[in-house]
Amino acid sequence: MKEHAPVLIVVFPIMFAFITPLLGWIRKSLCYPWVILALSLSTICSLITLEEVMTGGVIHYYLGSWLPPWGIEYVVDHLNAMMLVIVSGAALLVAIYSRRSIEAELPGKMVYFYTIFLLQTTGFLGIVVTGDMFNLYVFLEIASLAGYTLIAIGEDGAPLASFRYIIMGTVGACFYLLGVGYLYMVTGSLNMADLATIIPLISDSKVVLTAFAFFMAGIAIKMALFPLHVWLPDAYTRAPSTSSALIAPLMTKISVYVMIRIFFTVFNPSFTVDVLPATDILLWLGTIAIFGGAIMALAQTDFKRMLCYIVVAEVGYMVGGIGVANSIAMQGAVLHLLNDAVMTLGLFIVAGIVTYQMKGHLLSDFNALFRKMPLTMVTFVVVALSVIGVPPTCGFFSKWYLLQGGIMAGAWGFVVALLLSSLINIILFFRIFELGYVFQSDGSHHDHGHGGFIHEAPASMLLPSVVVALGILAIGIYNQVIINNIITYVIPKF
Amino acid sequence: MKALNLLIVFLTGALLIYGTLDMPDFGDPNSPASLHVSPEYLQNIIQDTATPNAVTSLLADYRGYDTMGETTVIFTAGIACILLLRTMRKE
Amino acid sequence: MIELIAGKYNYWIYIILMMIGFYAMIGKRNMVKKVIGMNIFQTSIILFYISIAFKKGATLPIIRETADHVAAAVEVSQYINPLPHVLMLTAIVVMVATLGVAIAILILIYRRYGTLEEDEILKKVKS
Q: What is the domain extent for residue A397?
């Protein structure tokens, strides 16, 4: 059974998703344990896969026992295995958190919501684990369709935000498909490893250059790279709390993973860095994204919208780190994939808890919250310190490696952007800490609901946020272990 | 604003047409796409899958996993329409 | 020059079709027109892939078999390439599913705002 673990990671959510509507028809309250069971099985399989990759090297799994390039294959190396654990673990935590939130925000839609939830997770897992270009497109579309739906059922203004996301997301996926078509036309193969052997022989063909450009454009739209980020703030703000907690930590990081795969595994590193100035463009776009995201975040009065602009800036960190194109910055960028997923998950879970208690997610809803919800606020403080970059939280270490790499390569714009955004993050979060500690006794705070008595969050919502806070501290303290055992194998030879 | 949209469309179209200059000709039987993976498909489908139709055998056997993904896409769209459009009766 | 056009004219026609659809997606203010543009864009990509599979003078990829599942000798340049057709069967299904979800969201928008023009909706949201 263990040798089928890579495919079981994807098969469990799909099969469980097909049965969920039947189960909900019998009895609605069965859906929540069913979803937790599906995601727990998937997480266990991804942990088994990670352990096998760490001891045995890269796993090749042939679907249907057809040899590549005639059949589809799953290739799991260290980067993949780490991403699989991140995606399935984050989905499990959001599922545990989701019950009270769905009861409050989407009454009566629980059964179908959990079906789409499982399908969204399937899409994400399928993108991460595959080694075939067209299979990636199919699972990208599963994830995209589920995402459009999960966002459109939110509060007022959500369908409009989701429609803009549909238009931009479809353009991105179609550009990716065009890139696959152009590459297929001159190589004849769809398998990533096979393409990696054929492309160096034809690397001065105009078709290959055009395919590369369209991959970059399509993935940049999905990744919300500045200036193509305009779909992100509205979409993640108006979505229900559970949807934004699931999609926000994962979609952009998975797109960064796809970019690393295409730039360094399909096209080899010398093509990306030397033949085309691709990494220079990425460095500039990343720097501009950090500045743009940080400055726009300062101007927001809505907490979730501020988080969305922080996400845009974090994408800038990763893209800039890849653009610097030396080993230490790449190490920082891949470690930041892990860190940013965990940090964004924590931030959006806290936002969801605040929305559940205060029925709103403006900054002014944080008034005097430290006294009323102490444990939630402690986890919020840990996550905020990690976003700022304070040791020993994990955010400090990835920023440190990115800074080191930037200084070594002389990318001074990137270094200045990193330091400036840390300062701006300090301002952003300490504003909230001040609001939370000081009680505005002149009655100027809005009393949305609960008749004024706010208590601590329910246990099913509190448990994931505590796990995330402990995880941030653990990743920070043990980051050298993670780097030595997993990340060093991921860095391409520049 | 219209000028910006037209500019983006022209640039994209120009880049795509620039890419076609090195492409194999229309209908060329010696293009890389026809020589690398598909000859083995055409030669082996009878003994591997006992189906004379190559497209069927590829869709259902060699790349059957993509077909499962496609079925999942249809299912997702169906459940999405229920989730979005069905108005709950007020109890 | 003539060989260039004679060899590549099909790709250029499909690229022009793609750009018509792309302009409709980003340039038009009416949301239904944007969805129609999305449909044109995706359809032209499908046609583009199909034109990769064509070989001059070739026929459909259905192999004639003799008795006992033994194939007659296969001359590969007589049959068109089956792989892009298979990929595009999946892409057509994805296109239809995306169209369905987009129109469902348009219905939600219409129920809420009463119009499907983007500038009118922005005016309503701002006020």
A: 295-494
Q: Would you call A159 and C105 a contact, using CB atoms and an 8 Å cutoff?
A: yes
Query: A-chain residues within 8 Å CB-CB of B89?
Result: none
Contact A171 C121 (CB under 8 A): no
On chain A, the residues whose CB falls within 8 A of the CB of B76 are 116, 119, 142, 145-146, 149
Tokens 């009270």 -> residue: A100
- Per-residue pLDDT, B13: 94
Alpha-carbon dihedral sign for residues A283, A285, A288, A294: negative
Q: Do C98 and A166 touch (CB under 8 A)?
A: yes
* Total domains, chain A: 1
The answer to whether the complex's ipTM is over 0.90 is yes
Cβ atoms A448, A360 nearer than 8 A: yes
Collect all residues of chain C within an 8 Å Cβ-Cβ radius of residue B67.
Answer: 90
Nearest CA among A318, A358, A353, A356 for reference residue A338? A318
Are the beta carbons of B31 and A185 separated by less than 8 Å?
yes
Q: Is the pLDDT of residue A171 over 80?
A: yes
Is A140 among the domain residues?
Answer: no
Asked: is C2-56+78-126 a CATH 1.10.260.40 domain? The reply is no
Distance CA A42, CA C1 (A): 57
Distance CA A108, CA A102 (A): 9
Distance from C-alpha of A212 to C-alpha of A267, rounded to nearest angstrom = 9
A77-131 pLDDT per residue, tens: 999 999 999 999 999 999 999 998 998 888 888 999 999 999 999 999 999 999 9
Residue spans of the domains in chain C: they are 2-56+78-126
Task: Report which residue type is found at A105.
Answer: E
- pLDDT per residue as tens digits for the range C66-113: 666 666 677 888 889 999 999 999 999 999 999 999 999 999 999 999
Residue matched to tokens 């309503």 = C124
Domain residue ranges of chain B, discontinuous segments joined by +: 40-86
